[in-house]
From TrEMBL:
SUPFAM superfamilies per UniProt: P-loop containing nucleoside triphosphate hydrolases
Residues covered by the ABC transporter domain: 32-261
UniProt-listed InterPro entries: AAA+_ATPase, ABC_transporter-like_ATP-bd, ABC_transporter-like_CS, ABC_transporter_C-like, P-loop_NTPase
Highest taxon above the source species: Eukaryota
Mode of membrane association: Multi-pass membrane protein
GO cellular component, one term: membrane
PROSITE patterns: ABC_TRANSPORTER_1, ABC_TRANSPORTER_2
This protein's record includes keyword Mitochondrion: no
Provenance organism: Henosepilachna vigintioctopunctata
One GO MF term attached to the UniProt entry: ATP binding
Protein name as it appears in the record: ABC transporter domain-containing protein
Amino acid sequence: MTCFERALEYTQIEQEPKNGKLVDNWPTDPKIKFENVCLSYGLKGKQVLKNLNFRIESKEKAAIVGRTGAGKSSIIVALFRMYDIEGNIFINSINTKTLPLEKLRENLTIIPQDPILFTGSMRSNLDPYGKYTDVEIWHAVKEVNLDRHISDLHYIVNDCGAHLSVGQRQLICIARALLDRHKIIILDEATSNMDEEMEALIHSTIDKHFKECTIISISHRIRQVLNYDKLLVMEEGELVECGKPKELLKNTQGVFYKMAQKANLV
Ligand SMILES: Nc1ncnc2c1ncn2[C@@H]1O[C@H](COP(=O)(O)OP(=O)(O)OP(=O)(O)O)[C@@H](O)[C@H]1O
Ligand SMILES: [Mg+2]
């Protein structure tokens, strides 16, 4: 009866809105603009994003840095419209609030901080909608060196992937991103659980295959973000610095300079 009770409760959960205006061929020009964006979790929660304003141009590689709890992942939460935000986010000049949620989310690829897989085969995890051929999927598997760990696409994923390491699960997400070829790729600490060799491989794979994409990467490793086009430095929900890494490093009193100093890079 407890199961029945729970199932009944689930039918009464408030549903996410399904409506919105479809736009053909969106996004052709994957630029992103945040305009006065504020976010708080729950009604009485404190603001975790405070009046964010920034732009990420098409095909730009941007990195978000900042301490734990600074609001980095919350920027991604806002982008995916997981919670209602104040202010507006535009992708390719379209306000994301006006798009159907499904359309918005299916055009963003994320490699999350702690990816969860579905119990089933490797194939169903890499291609849940059955859009690709086995050859295409295996090619993506090889690109991220996962063929070292799995023998074929019938490989069984048990218990939502609990028997795979976080790094391996992230590799599966990257392989999925390779297949989907969306124009906006988001990496949340995607390589923090990998050894250096694997990390270098992932970065070269991203450089090679995602040239035409806008990339937003969250990273704790300062060394890694130095060759990005743009850095967004977050502190307690506020965007405190934004610009090219080299320019930010010129400001010896700046937050990013201090981070680089701590990492022994300046
Ligand atoms: N689902 C949630 N409900 C309530 N509060 C949340 C939720 N997710 C995050 N927060 C709070 O929002 C703030 C920002 O969290 P966020 O996850 O964006 O930080 P972060 O910069 O990604 O940190 P980390 O580097 O540890 O991943 C924190 O104070 C956190 O406690
Ligand atoms: Mg985070």
